Amino acid sequence: MLSSLSGKGLLFIGLTVFLQACSYSVIVSNQRGTAQPDPMNHELGFYQGKQVMVIDTVVPLSLLQNNVMAVPVCAEGGFHSVEYKITFGAMLRNTFTFGKRKSIKVKYVCLKESND
Q: I need a labelling partner for 36 at 20 to 30 A (CA). Which of 2, 47, 59, 75 fits?
């Protein structure tokens, strides 16, 4: 009985690790611009010290309609970086709804406002 439980546990852990690898993200960054600072953001990595806005939504898709998502405009009109992320759950939602609903998660950082 104990060996059966450990085998199931190992299978579950292996499956979880495999499915986690099905997630990916793409970051497009403006190398010449300065990001809007946020001293309260202590997130490690790329977003540390930057003011991050997140859009996490599910959009309906149609073959006959081209959907466009508008991102709120930054103060100076420019982006420092934009990240588009796909997770395994989002892929499953798209698969089981036959492509009619898509989960979208976008993180973006605006350019720092000039002090003129």
A: 59
56: left (phi over 0), alpha (psi -120 to 50) or beta: beta
Q: How far apart are CA 108 and CA 77, in angstroms?
A: 13
The distance from CA 11 to its chain's CA centroid, rounded to whole angstroms, is 28
Q: From CA 108, how far away is CA 83, in angstroms rounded?
A: 6
Question: Do residues 31 and 47 touch, judged by C-beta distance below 8 A?
Answer: no
Amino acid residing at 89 = G
Q: How far apart are CA 16 and CA 60, in angstroms?
A: 28
Instruction: Determine how β-strand 24-29 pairs with β-strand 53-60.
Output: unpaired
Q: Which residues pair with 111 in a beta bridge?
A: 35
- C-alpha distances in Å from residue 34, one per residue of 15, 27, 51, 112: 41, 16, 11, 6
Amino acid (one-letter) located at 26:
V
Please tell me the pTM assigned to this model. Answer: 0.68
